């Protein structure tokens, strides 16, 4: 096997820029997913059957279809149906945000339902309205349980972010493709970028474990 990493050295800064490009849209997507997912989770535990059905259908669609298909649908269908020339960046954050919200909604719903029912019953007995009860009593306790799961979702999105290269978004993966095509040395570029992905994921994994330990100590 003839590997020559010296040829990709001049392109290293170009590829390293992809770290911030990748993390940038992933962070925005997880924030969008968190807020939409929180709303959907509250709908799922509501007493309105129609809204619960819509929320369950939304979740099943985004969890039951490939992420790359959702990305292609947003990138190509929006201009065709709405006449709006959507950018790769906006397509990426919209797709990943909506996809993440489906998973986050289940995480938050499970976290809320894991809170002792006695907390809710006591709040209702004291006459505390539903909204203040959820914001001040239930959700803070649920968040403590779901933060590790949310961190895992962030890690998953970071790994899956490589698929945005198919719409020519200059993330880490796309930059490796550009360098490989320029030098006709794809393997070296992919190994280098693969190592970056690995380090990123390992750092996020360690951060997640530290967060989990801190939460356990605060119990």
From TrEMBL:
Molecular function GO terms recorded: transmembrane transporter activity
Gene3D superfamilies the record matches: MetI-like
Positions of the ABC transmembrane type-1 domain: 19-208
Coiled coil: none
Location within or outside the cell: Cell membrane
Any GO BP annotation: amino acid transport
One Pfam assignment: BPD_transp_1
Alphabetized InterPro entries for the sequence: AA_ABC_transptr_permease_3TM, ArtM/GltK/GlnP/TcyL/YhdX-like, MetI-like, MetI-like_sf
Alphabetically ordered keywords of this record: Amino-acid transport, Cell membrane, Membrane, Transmembrane, Transmembrane helix, Transport
Regions that span the bilayer: 20-43, 55-78, 189-211
GO cellular component: ATP-binding cassette (ABC) transporter complex
Main location: membrane
Membrane topology: Multi-pass membrane protein
Recorded family membership: Belongs to the binding-protein-dependent transport system permease family. HisMQ subfamily.
Full protein name: Polar amino acid transport system permease protein
Species of the source: Tenuibacillus multivorans
